[in-house]
Amino acid sequence: MGAPGKTEGKPAPRLAFRRVTKRFGRRSKAGGAGDVITAVNEVTLEVADGEVVSLIGPSGCGKSTLLNMGSGLDLPSEGEVFVDGERVVKPNAQVAFMLQKDLLLPWRTIRANVELGLEIQGVAAAERRGRSEAYLRSCRLTEFGDHYPYQLSGGMRQRAALARTLAVDPKVLLLDEPFSALDAQTKMVLQQDLSRTLQQAGKTALFITHDLVEAVALSDRVLVMSARPGRIVEEIIIDLPDRGDAMRRREHPAMGQYVPRLMALLHLREAAA
User: Fold this and answer.
1) Is the pTM of this model over 0.85?
2) Which of 151, 161, 256, 257 is spaced 20 to 30 Å from 236 by Cα?
3) Other CB atoms closer than 10 Å to residue 145's CB: what's the count?
4) Residue 262: pLDDT band with limits 50, 70, 90
């Protein structure tokens, strides 16, 4: 299976999964070989340069498994994953992860946390400082660079985690429910920050969420996954303006047409009956 290339005049995708299947073995109670669980089955998807795509689906359908394979933290049992046409076989410096937990180091200031990835990459101190200041500013944390994580609210800590993720200038961002632990109002503010930042920086992102409004507000496309073994069962193109302004999208009259459709695809009414 070859690397994805240009088709019909389109550039190669930033991120591509080609017929990806992932199986996990489970030991029996006696300690021997047990059942084999198929987490995802023959998933093919692409994310273009500068595009934001959300994955939604029932819990346990393999969404996080896909992100782990996209980052190189795990490898497919079958199929291949590519970033910029290069097969992913190990953790990739061109791919950055943002999780529900901010994972800020408590003994480092917010600025030092933002600079951590750059420090690991061996970037010179002056450049680290310049890049961290730029992303602290874009994430509205300029006045908090010398604070420590314990001094910030949950929402501000997630802003710091976003600044740290963006500071290493990744080609692809993988976001695994980064706002799910926040209250509704804080979540809306962070969604606005993220939508604006991704648009301004032209970043490519694959985003996991259980929040259907969040998926529509932030994305160019929403991919719906089946129950395990997870497969892509539907693609919804979000034909709304202002992808860089999540608040405005929430207010758009056409927003209401997408959420009921996603609810139907996820069979939520039947699940709640």
Assistant:
1) yes
2) 161
3) 20
4) very high
